[in-house]
Design a protein that fits this description.
- By secondary structure, the protein is an alpha+beta fold.
- The chain is built from 18 helices and 16 strands.
- The strands form 3 sheets. It has an 8-stranded mixed beta sheet with strand order 1-5-6-11-10-9-7-8. A 5-stranded mixed beta sheet has the order 13-12-14-15-16. Strands 2-4-3 form a 3-stranded antiparallel beta sheet.
- A hairpin with a 5-residue loop joins strand 15 and strand 16.
- Helix 6 packs across helix 13 and helix 8 packs antiparallel against helix 10.
- The longest helix is centred in the first third of the chain and has 20 residues.
- The chain is elongated, with a radius of gyration of 28 Å.
């Protein structure tokens, strides 16, 4: 029998114990901020019915859905005529897919459980999502999102609170960021002002790629989507408006003055910026008129967060989606949310060396094992150290001391406790600091105090 070389799918990763310790450090901070703002935890299944997912992310998003083959004979409903029609074939062999994000499943949950929910409903969710994208640096096929959403309120106070959460999370993680803001109503006003009010989705899908492919390539894509040269000529100076946030919005008012929707978006942006100024959060906010976030469900404010000191795509994003639950039969339920891209945040922290030492040390104390009598004393002391909340372990075998010390060094364990025959006779233990080489002798029963974190 041939031996299969072990591997994992492209765009996915294994995480070692040290990596998981750092990831848990990051997740714990994010969750703590969410809980401080009184969001409630929620989980949804990894797979959803395709009827739930399709059509919610736009044409680009639908292409990136991972589909799951039906159980059993998944070809049983196929006809020869279907084989020439990929769309018909896909529908008949696959009814479920891996979730693309956490927002659409959350909207489905809200509608399905509306009788049990008290509105406004505030939830947080930390789970993996999947996208059939081309793997590259900072872009994975399986990755974690950390979402907070508020459903059942149109107040812009909710957007301001999300900006506050972003500020707290990245401040505690030590990452300097810029929060980019725009409003889909402003984008609708721009589309109207350039004479293509009916082509807003084509325009937003294209301009959402400016950071990736540049302005000229975006203009070429707009032309390929049959946006007229005159319209593209009007669009370019709008996207290049300069100045501080107030100056940009004042200049924009003149450019889209004929669009009531666009002016409404500007008014919302000004109000949100006012809230953020009151909270002292305006220092890292930037109005970015090229920000589009090309998902179909956004209707108002949109956010995107970029790390200032590390080259990577957005590490957080979201916005308002006042109509999302309507597609599941529950209209007029406004919502707004933001998603932290945990894997990109991890890459930023790792690249900048922002993880503290305690985030990588899984064991703080190792008790050496010298035989039956000594290990019983060590186990008793170990129990006391663990009761003090200190991560600790005992070497399971009575091996040579060099082997046990090598184990401690390879695991980067800060402290080793030695209870040999001499120590056992005198009722003491030797505590060695593996980083400095210093040793101290303490009474049994007091080791926890000598190795406190």
């Amino acid at each position: 029998m041939a031996i299969t070389k072990p591997s994992i799918p492209k765009g996915t990763r294994d995480f070692s114990p040290a990596e998981m310790s750092r990831r848990n450090y990051m997740f714990d901070i994010i969750k703590d901020v969410f809980r401080t703002h009184r969001f409630l935890p929620l989980e949804t299944p990894a797979m959803e019915n395709l009827s739930t997912l399709l059509g919610k992310y736009g044409e680009e998003g639908d292409k990136l859905l991972f589909r799951i083959l039906n159980s059993g004979d998944f070809t049983r409903e196929l006809k020869p005529s279907d084989l020439g029609n990929p769309a018909a074939t896909a529908t008949k062999i696959s009814e479920k897919g891996l979730r693309y994000d956490l927002t659409v499943p959350f909207a489905r949950y809200v509608v399905q459980h509306r009788g049990d929910i008290v509105f406004p409903f505030r939830r947080y969710q930390v789970q993996p999502v999947w996208r059939a994208d081309r793997p590259q640096k900072g872009r994975y096929r399986e990755f974690y999102q950390c979402d907070v959403d508020i459903v059942g309120s149109r107040s812009l106070l909710n957007e301001a609170e999300l900006v506050q959460i972003v500020d707290k999370v990245f401040d505690r993680l030590g990452i300097s960021v810029t929060v980019k803001l725009n409003n889909r109503k402003i984008l609708a006003g721009i589309a109207q002002a350039i004479g293509h009010a009916d082509r807003m989705m084509d325009i937003t899908i294209a301009i959402d790629k400016i950071d990736k492919i540049g302005m000229e390539a975006v203009c070429e894509e707009l032309a390929a989507r049959e946006i007229s040269p005159e319209a593209i000529g009007k669009l370019k100076p709008i996207l290049k408006l300069e100045g501080d946030n107030t100056a940009k919005l004042n200049l924009l008012k003149n450019s889209i003055k004929e669009s009531d929707t666009g002016l409404e978006g500007i008014a919302e942006m000004e109000k949100l910026l006012g809230y953020c100024c009151t909270l002292g959060l305006d220092g890292n906010l930037e109005v970015d008129l090229s920000l589009a976030r090309g998902l179909n469900y956004y209707t108002g404010t949109i956010f995107e967060v970029k790390a200032n000191d590390f080259q990577i795509g957005s590490i957080c994003g979201g916005g308002r989606y006042d109509d999302l639950t309507g597609i599941f039969g529950m209209p007029d339920t406004p919502g707004v949310g933001i998603s932290f891209g945990a894997d990109r945040i991890y890459d930023v922290m790792n690249g900048l060396g922002l993880f503290p030492e305690e985030a990588t040390v899984t064991t703080h104390v190792l008790f050496l094992n010298f035989g039956p009598a000594e290990e019983l004393a060590a186990m008793k002391e170990l129990a006391a150290v663990r009761s003090a909340g200190i991560p600790s372990e005992i070497y399971p075998d009575s091996a040579k001391i060099k082997k046990q010390m090598d184990y401690a060094n390879k695991r980067s364990i800060p402290y080793v406790v030695i209870i040999g025959s001499d120590e056992l006779a005198s009722g003491t233990a030797v505590v060695k600091n593996m980083r400095t080489g210093d040793q101290q002798t303490v009474r049994l029963g007091t080791v926890a105090g000598a190795v406190s974190m």
